[in-house]
Amino acid sequence: MALDFRRPHPQGQRRSAPVIHVVVVEDDPLDAVELVAALRAYERRSGVPLHVTVHTDGADAVAAHDPRTDLLLLDVEMPGTDGLTAAALIRERDPDVAIVLVTRAAAHAIRGYAVGAAGFLVKPASPEALGRELDRVVARAHADRTAGALVAAAGAGTVRIGAADIVCLEASRRRVRVHTLAGPHVVAGPLKDLEAQLDGAGFFRCHHGFLVNLRHVTEVRATTCRLVTRREVPVSRPHRRAFLAALTDHLARAAAPG
């Protein structure tokens, strides 16, 4: 069973900090409530918005794993699929997610190295210890957002692609083809979700089915634009004026000294 603890922001309010996706895997309801309360206390103290999901079973967490997850808080001792087993299965598909084991026995921490755990918390987890783990995750998420990184599901795994390497994104039914300087990746859509990840990284929707990296546009024609890979993508009439304005602004900022 999964519980979604996303808290909507007040109407019209925008927050500059990246949303941190946290998944708690805990079969004890009281322990789960305590962890969520500690996460919300961190959110209030730091101003960093958290999207928190709780799973009460390791198998459910593995089946529902979202590649956008920044932090997994996994109870080690659970019936069925325990935290270490769940961590190993998720790590096979997602090499980048931060995993922190939550346990009553510190001895389990040694076993965490096998699944690439970033740390462990001894129950009951102190706000200070949890805060330190979250600070590291927030710092990494901020670095990814600043550099521009796309994280998406691809097949049975996850890909993380630097924004600078992406030439364009092309919607294809329920998938998105990410064209990079090195070649394409086919990832799960929709395009609008990937566009949101790349917000502020110099991308523009020139057509309902295409998102282009402005730094890789080399020429604009009547109904298309040409990219550094010599690929041409359509520029639709409703998007053309705004696209030209965005491209002009991008070129002006790129040419500005300093």
TrEMBL record:
Keywords: DNA-binding, Phosphoprotein. It holds the Pfam family Response_reg. Residues 21-138 form the Response regulatory domain. SUPFAM superfamilies: CheY-like. The modification 4-aspartylphosphate is found at D75. Residues 150-249 form the HTH LytTR-type domain. One of its GO terms (molecular function) is DNA binding. SMART domains: LytTR, REC. This is DNA-binding response regulator. The lineage of its organism: Bacteria, Bacillati, Actinomycetota, Actinomycetes, Micrococcales.
